[in-house]
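LAB NOTEBOOK - FOLDING QUEUE
OPERATOR: T.R.
BATCH SIZE: 2
PURPOSE: Compare the predicted structure-token outputs for two unrelated chains run back to back under identical settings.
PRIORITY: normal
REVIEWER: second-year student, initials M.K.

ITEM 1
FIELD SEQUENCE / FIELD STRUCTURE:
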Amino acid sequence: MTMRISIKEEYMSEFEKFVKSLPSDAIEIKNTLDEEIRRRSQEYRSGNMKTTPFMEGMDEIRESLVSRL
């Protein structure tokens, strides 16, 4: 079963205690996409991310489509 829950900050320590009381293989905690989005945003802003302009390669695609008509 998969479940997504939101915990108010004031109850987080109690929730963490509850999670620790469960058997180690009982649950699997996955982080939200926030960290992945933050990492990719930083990579993009730093200029290290390989990007391709939108129009690059469009001429080849257009020619291929027109030739099929």
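ITEM 2
FIELD SEQUENCE / FIELD STRUCTURE:
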Amino acid sequence: MKIILLLLAASVSAAPHAKPYWLKTYSLAPYRETWSGELAVKKLDAALPRVVAAVEKGGGRLIQPLANFAGSSTEQQMSLTVPRKKAKALLAALRRLGKAPEPLVRPSAPAIPLDEVREKLARLTKEKTENPTAPARTPAAAEAIDEMIEHLANVEAVARATDGEVLWNLTVQEAR
């Protein structure tokens, strides 16, 4: 009896997921990394327009108008996004405007496996189109299929729109 129970328990826990794993979710965030850092400049008021210009020239953009970020007479916070492939070049451009240590880099989301997403989306769409009456017999399953199609289409759109961005939280401050 113990042997049968052990064999049954082993077979239940060792069953791998069928490929593809349909309930896998993918991040819709375009950010692949988050950077945090400082830039020390001689005069804040003179440097800020040059910092914003360097960000824009480097392919980045502020996530909101500069006036909406917290700041004082000697320090300005800002958050920006930049394509991951251009982030190091932007760091070099900012270093020409002042002193900037290496930013703290944290991974945010893994790269989207676009081939996998497209394969799932194509299979679901094809099956739904070729056999529209099958999901109609099980409304809850039909709704789940529609949700999976919607999620996969959104993931594909995010992956097409960007190869991954860096969200960069930067504090520009006057050197003391």
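REVIEWER COMMENT (ITEM 2): DSSP finds six helices and five strands in the chain.
FOLLOW-UP: none requested
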